[in-house]
Amino acid sequence: MQTSEKIHPDQIESGAISIYSDIGPYIDYKHGDGHVLIDGKQSNISVQLITPDIVRISGSLDGNSALMKPSKALLPFEPLKGWRATESENELEITGGNVVLVVNKYDMSFMVKAAQGKQCGAYTLSFSDKTMRCQGSMEDGAVIYGLGETTGYLNKRGERYTMWNSDVFDPHVPDMESLYQSIPLLIHHTASHSFGLFIDHPGKTVIDLRESADSYSIEASNREIDLYVITGPKLKDVVAGYSKLTGKMPLPPLWSLGYQQSRFSYMDQEEVITLARNFRAKGIPCDVIYLDIHYMSEYKVFTFDEEKFPDPAGMMKELKELGFRIVPVVDPGVKVQDGYEVYDKGIDEGRFCQTPDGNQYVGNVWPGPSVFPDFTNESTREWWGAMHQFYVDYGISGIWNDMNEPSVFNSLTKTMDASVVHCNDGNPKTHGEMHNIYGLLMSQATHEGMGKLLQGERPFVLSRAGYAGIQRYAAVWTGDNRSYWDHMRLSISMGLNLGLSGVAFCGSDIGGYMHHTSGELLARWTQLGVFTPFCRNHSAIETRNQEPWTFDAEVEGICRQYIELRYRMLPYMYSLFYDSACSGLPIMRPLVMEYPEDQNTYHLSDQFLLGENLLIAPICEPGKQHRVVYLPEGVWYDYWNGTRYVGGAHIIAHAPLDVLPMYVKGGAIIPLTRPMQHTGEGHWNYLDVHLYAQGGAYQAESNVETEHRFGNGTQAVAVAKAETEHQTGMKSIFNLYEDDGISDKNTQGAYNIIQLQAEESDRCFTIRVSYEVCGLQQGDKSVLYTVHHLSFIPKAVSQISEVPDMKHLEERSSGWYYDKQDNQLYIKAPLSVLQEVELIARG
Ligand code: MIG
Question: Residue 616 C-alpha to ligand 1 middle, in angstroms?
């Protein structure tokens, strides 16, 4: 702990100020193979087109910038050809694809413009002894998103971050400029357009959005700088464009979407089995139990402690019968111990990182003195990957990579020495130059290795550290948070910016890791956590237990209810995961992504959308039962009681402890299934499809203050009738994805896409369902459609007969029933691959 002495006026260190010089003036330019090389007095910069909308600008003080190699964050690319250059007295203008670059000859600062002349920033490059710096313009009123895993709020303007993967056990407060992941992506957003700037530098990079009101600076600790401008113009284009550079999350196995339980540590085999039995006895769905470091013998990776886990195979067998998977932690540090196979082999084969004088680099971690694989070599990644046979033999298909910043227990740098050498497949670099990518390469080794060993099954990897592109190999959790309400709130903005930075599969320790959670906090955090892509409850050694039943019956009931809701929502969730795997867009997304022109959304750090149409607004403070929720344009319904709102307004949600404020947009189609104890298979024989009509006409301009009513559906309908302007022909689509949930056959076409369509017109509501893609043979499904908030009373549904009540509907394979009280129309009809379904309800 520090005291006030820290700020003793006589001991304040004055930071050394670096003097930066311009890289210009301009000398000349020449066309190269897929690039333009611009020579300046101090540096040369090269310009390449990666896609018609993404331009790479590399600057080098010493070498030829056109030869600079991108880091392993990037997917391989071939620059496009066809730059055109025109020179005037003061400027060089080069045009390629949809991008125009205007270079000022005086100092070689440049401006990037996109199609339709949209400005994508003005940039000045400069340098000092060992650093290159880029200053980028920030427009008035612009907000800045991205930057991966950082503390703070959604908008990063006014903050400063250091990209340097760090094991931060101290509380994650705004002063923490570095956390475990480094994703140097800035997204500049205004109502008119968005663009992104990605800085590919796995060494230390300082990004300062605080010093100046109208510009930010990026300092890369290197004599070169490598920038990518992603021109947008929409926020979604930027995120999708970034995912073209750094890749997308592969669709994970369905079980990794289930609820997961962890603790540092479940100490022995008996405790693990008892935990699993407890979940089933209490009827709380769960798919995964984590094994933290105590499962190992002397913290040696690829071992089981023979005393505490005497029969891992037997344990795995029982867990399998109960429907559980195990995900063990695997750290990079390998214990220095003669006779330990991993160590011996690694030394023989030269697998570990060395110091510049050719000795093994040894650092202290859990096992004591340890050596660290040099994951920058492909052969070492393969070696490491293949060793996972040890886990696969026990039936394990998921691995948890921790401490891979890498974290080293030394008080000075807390990581490997910067001088440690990485062989990097024959292009050696220092650890200082590659630090931020170490964890990604470990997860790559793990993911690729497991992928091979599992022979057709999809692996799951969870990683603490990462760099741009980590999404290709691992899901990410946000490390050692605390059981603070503030950290629950923080997990939302962290998840949102991770999602905007390409990492769709992310989450935080539910309930909080350090500190002692409370029943109320656990209930609220579980409500939030079941709507984050990665859903795991985890807590630290010596903290109070926080499994769902460790408080009272009320808390347990709330946890069960919401975890069940997650399982019911799996068809919806899994489809969002599939979308994300195709588009690179996040699953949990900030409202600004869907409503980029609505300035009310720009700073929303405590509510989010799951997909496009489901709005989640958690309660993040103790003792609170109300909160303000912003509903953007359109019609919204309270998920729980159906109250109808016209958006573009702030409302006050009432949320007793068992209520998570959730809103569904008019037009939404949300497919659910029955709750289950674990995920099992990825296709659903029973679907419960909820369709939300617009609830009658609405006036886009109308003021919600006078519009909304708390209460039952009757009032809501009355409100709807009072409105005059009719919206007709509303049409919406949801693509429901299903596959076998586990194998990689999905990548060879073994999946189905069931297209659900709803169309609303005057006194008519039509549902159409068809198999858009049918690559997986399936039996018929039983589907119950619930249409909420019809604007008319249905008299008939085409080709389906009416039944007198819900009980009759349950007993039959088809029929319809209209519940006047709730204004809900239920239609039951089988769905088969062969036949398209068309259901028309008329009033
Ligand atoms: O320095 O493996 O963030 O989730 O329980 C602690 C023990 C090492 C840090 C991880 C945490 C995990 C813990 N690990």
Answer: 29
